[in-house]
Write a structure and sequence with these properties.
Oligomer: single chain
Number of strands: 9
Radius of gyration: 19 Å
Helix content: 25-40%
Number of helices: 9
Structural class: alpha/beta
CATH topology: Rossmann fold
Strand order of the largest sheet: 5-8-7-6-9
CATH superfamily: Nucleoside phosphorylase domain
């Protein structure tokens, strides 16, 4: 489905995507040359950027799942779990809205940003990052919601994660469990600047990511959370950070505290979720759009280390 007349995809964008398809072949040759004389290193050729066959399938899958050709995606991408964010983004600055077999997308020419609703959970989080790797994004920002664990938090607070605990299964297929889940520093730094300029307060800390939904009724698990001193809990952040890292996709996150599950009556309900959307979503989205748009305008080099 589409709405609003969109600008045609520029020829140079189409050529850029076609040219990037040659990238995996060059990477394979480079890695083979680098490792051929080192018997202690076994190269991994199952990433989007170094596996031509996987790249081709991923490009096809991205279009099938989203309804948008890879060349239509902007270099700055916002991720969300909720259709409400898609609707608000479309109303604020969207040009083209598409939906494939699984995912909803809105592209904004004026903001030079694409927003993607990939649904909920770590498997979908891992999948969407690998698919978006085909487009070689400059920066990806996850505008997610989380449950506040620390007693000082309240609904509507912003959290800028410094790391995430990998208590889910998807990320273990990409990198060993002992490797920490970290965001791209420069994206988090940029978001921090935006919040300060806006006069907004925020918290930093560790997020516990898990794939166990009704943990609120598990006393043993809750005791573990107290021991960890994690600031908040969600189901995607660690996965996004890990898969972003191994897929060479620069990614950050700005989380919104939507409920306080460790407090009496603090578990999210239909009523409280609706109030959170109405009170805080526009500001959350505004900060995400502003950050991604200004990254595009300033042209700051985000991935500041070599692979």
């Amino acid at each position: 489905m589409t709405s609003k007349k969109s600008k045609p995809v520029s020829k140079h964008r189409v050529k850029a995507v076609a040219k990037s398809a040659e990238g995996p072949k060059k990477v394979v040759k480079k890695q083979e040359d680098l490792y051929k004389n080192n018997p202690f290193i076994v190269p991994t050729f199952n990433r989007i950027y170094n596996n031509p066959k996987k790249y081709k399938i991923a490009a096809d899958m991205l279009e099938r799942y989203t309804g948008s050709e890879p060349g239509r995606f902007k270099k700055q991408i916002i991720l969300t779990n909720f259709e409400y964010y898609i609707e608000r983004f479309h109303a604020l600055c969207g040009d083209t809205k598409t939906r494939g077999s699984a995912v909803t997308v809105v592209h904004s020419d004026s903001a030079d940003v694409t927003i993607v609703n990939f649904s909920i959970g770590s498997p979908m989080a891992a999948l969407i990052i690998e698919l978006l790797a085909v487009t070689s994004p400059k920066a990806v920002l996850f505008l997610g919601m989380c449950g506040g664990l620390h007693r000082s938090l309240k609904k509507g607070d912003f959290i800028l994660p410094t790391a995430a605990i990998r208590d889910e299964g998807a990320s273990t297929h990409y990198i060993p469990k002992q490797v920490p889940a970290l965001p791209t520093f420069k994206i988090q730094k940029f978001i921090s600047q935006m919040l300060v300029e806006k006069g907004l307060d925020y918290r930093t800390g560790v997020i516990h990511t898990m794939d166990y939904r009704f943990w609120e009724f598990d006393d043993k698990f809750k005791a573990q959370l107290y021991e960890e001193r994690a600031l908040a809990i969600d189901m995607e952040t660690a996965t996004l950070f890990v898969v972003g890292f191994v897929s060479k996709v620069p990614i950050g996150a700005l989380l919104l505290v939507s409920d306080l599950p460790l407090k009496r009556g603090g578990i999210k309900t239909k009523k409280t979720a609706t109030s959170v959307f109405k009170e805080y979503t526009d500001l959350h989205l505004e900060m995400g759009i502003k950050a991604m748009s200004e990254i595009a305008e300033r042209g700051e080099h985000i991935r500041h280390y070599k692979w």
